[in-house]
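In practice, a research group might receive sequence data for several interacting partners and want a quick structural hypothesis before committing to experiments. The following worked case mirrors that situation: the sequences arrive first, and a predicted assembly follows.
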Amino acid sequence: MLTSVDPDVIRALGDPLRLRIVTLLARETLCTTHLVEETGAKQTNLSNHMKVLREAGIVETEPCGRYTYYRLKSEVLAGLSGQFAELAAAARTAAENKRACP
Amino acid sequence: MLTSVDPDVIRALGDPLRLRIVTLLARETLCTTHLVEETGAKQTNLSNHMKVLREAGIVETEPCGRYTYYRLKSEVLAGLSGQFAELAAAARTAAENKRACP
DNA sequence: CGCTGATATCAGCAAGTGGTGATGTGAGAG
DNA sequence: CTCTCACATCACCACTTGCTGATATCAGCG
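A structural hypothesis for the assembly, expressed as tokens:
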């Protein structure tokens, strides 16, 4: 069956800055301070984006002293990958399944 | 290398209605009339969403008489799948790459 | 405890986005 | 040719969303 992709997760990844954050986090686990340096965004702004990513279930927080580290949940990304792969596979065969004009 | 995912493509897929359209198109090639029936959306609204999907390079149009059929570009979805797979793979090893607190 | 630095939250504003009705365009039927 | 139907575009409104400054919270240090 075509597992339905969760629009909220995709939505969260649709923002350029958040996508950049995800790409950074795919390389190393970072805390907010690092992300502020790397992206040049204001702390407030970044905290908002992290909240979106957190609520979408894309990242997990890990407190470390007075720093909070963000870690990517690779299962979520892997799930997305699989769902898009399914869609792509289905799309390859859909070209012949053309429904007749009404 | 981590191929950077195109935010515009993801953005286009982030809307619930568009995601539903894509899921429908993954099964069969349909024209706007069919999509209006299936989704219950107004024709104008649907036309707008199809424009977004078209400009994001996710679908192709194929005129057939006075009907226009929409076909999913499976390569794009496959590309997304691959890029998310890369991100997921990188994220799996990123847990140990924790940058020191500043 | 009081201070400092790291984060999160809140309020407000500007810009982007989706939905809808009116209208334009173009192909096929009569 | 004219009418109809499929589809696209335009104009407008409502809502959402991102960004920012101000403020709250909370951990560690002296």
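Before designing any experiment, note the following. Residues 31-33, 43-44, 46-48, 50-51, 65-68 of chain A lie near DNA strand C (CB under 10 Å from a C1'). The longest strand of chain A covers residues 59-64.
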